[in-house]
Amino acid sequence: MAKKDLDWSNIGFNYMKTDQRYVSNYKDGAWDEGTMTTEDTVQISECACVLQYAQTIFEGLKAYTTEDGRVVCFRPDLNAERMEASAKRLEMPAFPKERFIDAVVKTVKANIDYVPPYGSGATLYLRPYMFGSNAVIGVKPAEEYQFRLFCTPVGPYFKGGAKPITIRVCDFDRAAPHGTGHIKAGLNYAMSLHAIVDAHEQGFDENMYLDAATRTKVEETGGANFLFVTKDNKIITPKSNSILPSITRRSLMVVAEKYLGLEVEQREVYLDEVKDFAECGLCGTAAVISPVGKIVDHGKEICLPSGMDEMGPVTKKLYDTLTGIQMGRIEAPEGWIKVIE
Ligand SMILES: *Cc1c(COP(=O)(O)O)cnc(C)c1O
Q1: Number of C-beta neighbours around residue 8 at 10 A
Q2: What dotted CATH number matches 8-154?
């Protein structure tokens, strides 16, 4: 047992095969007991429901080393709950919360040498997912499923500090009203691929999706929720039934209110009012917060007062406080940190 000899600060955000992953199969109405395996490939029917009808959901969370040397995960109970909600919407069986957390613990322990050291900026990214595995040709939910959880070390999201990004108001929609935008389903990502490739070709880092019904309200990007800071330091996040409830964003709202004493509000946010905000950030597990410096709406530029050089001051405080909580430098609210022991 020895830490892998990896160049932690330079591994990037890529898949790297690790030693073991967790697998459990659902058949005849029940999950089996689950096991760790070294097998990194999946063998399923050529007609598996996931391959034909995209019946698959996933989660994403991280394990990392705190300042005092413990290996921890951040709020895995919320990932478990969200995955249950995702399963329900796609007519998949729930994977029980206690078992989800147990799978997280087992996978991190089995790959403990891949957990990056404190201070490296790198983390061990965990990817739980579930898919319909038996053959389905007439459209209906699968009867058999596989839940898997693998991990892969990932480098610091921002090499050399978080530089503000430029995003565009997107003409494609991410999620329909009453659709699946609020669950973490692979299908939401499949349909965002063209939009993000197109955005990159046009020189933008990300897409700002609007509500599909009226195209007047801000929703989110392909994989991160918006946080705005008003000129009088209030934190605002868009409210919509088609936004994926980011655990990072929900945690940042608590941090803003309870640690920084800021007023927070979740409400509909119109594209028209974005020009009046002082700061804008994108929230998700991967980067915690990516600062947005500029939003381009069909040639019309909205330049946030925080500029293109660094994170806005409030965004920075939010970022420092939440990462401080995660890394064990600041006391966490009850139940936020799951120690792997
Ligand atoms: C996963 C995801 C997020 C971020 O959620 P976190 O729980 O903070 O990682 C935001 N938007 C979408 C569409 C997502 O899939």
Answers
A1: 19
A2: 3.30.470.10
